[in-house]
Amino acid sequence: MKAIGKNVTVFDVYDRAKSGPKMEEKDWDFKLIPQTARKLKDKYGIKMDKKTIIPEDKELIDKLFNAGLEMLVECGVYCMDTGRVIKYTKDEVLHAIKAAPDHFTYGEGKEAINVVPRSYNSPKAPVIQGGPTGSPCSEELFLAIHQSYAQERIIDAMVDGVLQTVMGKDPSPGSPWEILAVRSEAIQVREAQLRAGRKGMGT
């Protein structure tokens, strides 16, 4: 009888970030990742058609999934704060995939959308997130930029940008200005959506 998989908790991840294999970030980025990718590409015989953005060949899809699973287990996830690699077992990854929710609601009210998995050949339209997506925006134009995205009805949800300055100050990490900038971003994004008639839009 196969053992039931165990959920990996935030406490497990924290402990592994403190005790995982020590490694320089550049070695993980520029040695382990590309070397493992090349090895798995050869192992699974993966050949990509550059003209096909999303592969539809089922055999290739299976190869890509298995190679990706093996790469995650072998390479782990790098933690920059501790300089260590957080490792997961194959069973843990597969259990997490199986335990993942099959849908969730994003947004509120009439702007709420139901997000569900889509197969590569699904006729269902994908969820479209629009916005500056982490790009720096000036204080003067932040509100207008986000309103322009919210006004586009094709967009289901928004990914906001970041303020370059707040009250003319640099919102450097760890400073009170950073906290003020994040608060201001949230307020202005909501205001932009309200002005565009998209109150409750997922962000």
List strands and helices in order, with pairings.
Layout: H1 10-19, H2 25-44, H3 58-75, E1 77-79, E2 84-86, H4 90-99, E3 104-106, E4 113-115, E5 129-130, E6 136-137, H5 142-150, E7 157-158, E8 162-163, H6 176-195
Parallel strand pairs: 5-7, 6-8
Antiparallel strand pairs: 1-2, 3-4
Helix pairs in contact: 2-3, 5-6
Shape: globular
What is the first-to-last residue Cα distance? 44 Å
**What is the chain-wise order of helices and strands?**
HHHEEHEEEEHEEH
Count structural domains.
2
Overall average residue pLDDT? 95
**Strand arrangement, major sheet:** 1-2
Count the E strands.
8
Strand portion, in percent?
5-15%
Largest sheet: 2 strands, antiparallel
Number of discrete helical segments: 6
Helical coverage, percent range: 40-55%
Could you characterize the architecture of this molecule?
Keywords: Methyltransferase, Transferase. GO terms for molecular function: methyltransferase activity. This is Monomethylamine:corrinoid methyltransferase. β3 and β4 (113-115) form a beta hairpin. The radius of gyration is 21 Å and the shape is globular. The protein contains six helices and eight strands. It has two domains: 10-99, no CATH class; 111-195, no CATH class. It has helices at residues 10-19, 25-44, 58-75, 90-99, 142-150, 176-195, and strands at 77-79, 84-86, 104-106, 113-115, 129-130, 136-137, 157-158, 162-163. The protein is mainly alpha-helical. The longest helix has 20 residues, at 25-44.
